[in-house]
Design goal:
There is one protein chain. β1, α3 and β2 form a beta-alpha-beta unit. This protein folds into 2 domains: about 170 residues, 3-Layer(aba) Sandwich (D-Maltodextrin-Binding Protein, domain 2), CATH 3.40.190; about 110 residues, D-Maltodextrin-Binding Protein, domain 2, CATH 3.40.190. About 40% of the residues lie in helices and about 20% in strands. The chain is globular and about 55 Å long. It has about 300 residues and is of the alpha/beta class. α5 packs across α12. It contains 12 helices and 13 strands.
Length: about 300
């Protein structure tokens, strides 16, 4: 059992390391007409939410976006939210699909482009999960246990569970015996199912999508706490993104569900479409961010 756990940890570590390099050049050989190829590429940043090993899908989505925008599209993915935020804030990206937590921290510098619709609304939750056969029934039951966070800049995987612990009168930095970061919601699910962690906090979108598409990954876990609904992770523009580009990107995304190919691609993401939104959608996340003091994150 110990060796099996070590093997899983090694696999997770190697996977996380590889995630940082594959996507920058994923679109280098994407087809396109000569006029499109001559234009400046749109650099689209992605955090590790659901697109694990989805290079083929990203090429299809990039090709569709290129046709709608009449310019090349390059996806850039990193294994940590903070890396994408750093690139975005330094205008090394044009836009990115990020989490609501870093958005509320930097919303004065970023432009809110659109928010995905999941299960009919631009909202999602944080799930606290444990192993299916474990005795734990509540967050309080995990005191003194081993817990997995997804990322220190994740709302569902870090901010909300810390807020929930504080609301119950606990110190998040000393409640668990030990904690660790997996750098991905899927990795948190795998860690709990494999017995590497007693509990974890994950994105409901990721858990529900995997339950439909890869049920073997979620069958070893169960949900013991569902958070209130929060604004879904938004697509935002970099500080230097021109307003004309922002409006064009927004128009294309908002119309994607009405396009036959675009709607099929949304189905691959388990999304219903994109909607325009106001920063107030993330008011509750902002309130939690003001309440929860930073933990000992790397």
């Amino acid at each position: 059992m110990i060796q099996a756990r070590r093997d899983v940890l090694l696999a997770l570590g190697l996977f996380c390391a590889s995630r940082a390099i594959w996507c920058d050049n994923a679109q280098a050989d994407a087809p396109g007409d000569r006029d499109t190829a001559s234009k400046t590429a749109l650099r689209f940043g992605l955090t590790p939410v659901i697109l694990d090993d989805r290079i083929a899908f990203l090429r299809l989505w990039a090709n569709w976006l290129e046709q709608q925008l009449n310019r090349p599209v390059v996806f850039v993915q990193r294994s940590r939210y903070r890396e994408i935020m750093d690139l975005l804030l330094r205008d090394r990206l044009d836009l990115a699909w990020i989490c609501g937590y870093p958005y509320v921290q930097h919303q004065q510098a970023l432009s809110l482009i659109a928010v995905p619709k999941f299960q009919g609304q631009p909202l999602y939750q944080s799930y606290i999960i444990v192993a299916t056969e474990s005795p734990f029934e509540s967050l309080s039951d995990l005191q003194g246990r081993l817990f997995a966070w997804s990322d220190p800049d994740s709302n569902s995987g870090y901010l909300y569970p810390r807020f929930a612990l504080m609301a119950q009168g606990h110190d998040p930095d000393h409640f668990f015996r030990r904690t660790f970061f997996t750098w991905g919601h899927r990795h948190c699910i795998e860690a709990v199912a494999a017995g590497l962690a007693d509990g974890a906090a994950v994105d409901s979108y990721v858990w529900e999508t995997l339950a439909l598409r890869n049920p073997e990954l979620t069958q070893g876990t169960r949900i013991i706490l569902r958070s209130p609904l929060f604004g879904f992770p938004p697509l935002v523009g970099a500080p230097g993104l021109a307003d004309t580009d922002l409006q064009t990107i927004r128009r294309v995304l908002l119309a994607q569900e009405a396009n036959q190919t675009g709607n099929r691609l949304l189905g691959e993401l388990s999304l219903d479409g994109f909607v325009a939104a106001q920063p107030s959608l993330f008011r509750e996340i902002a309130r939690m961010a003001e309440t929860v003091r930073p933990g000992s994150a790397p």
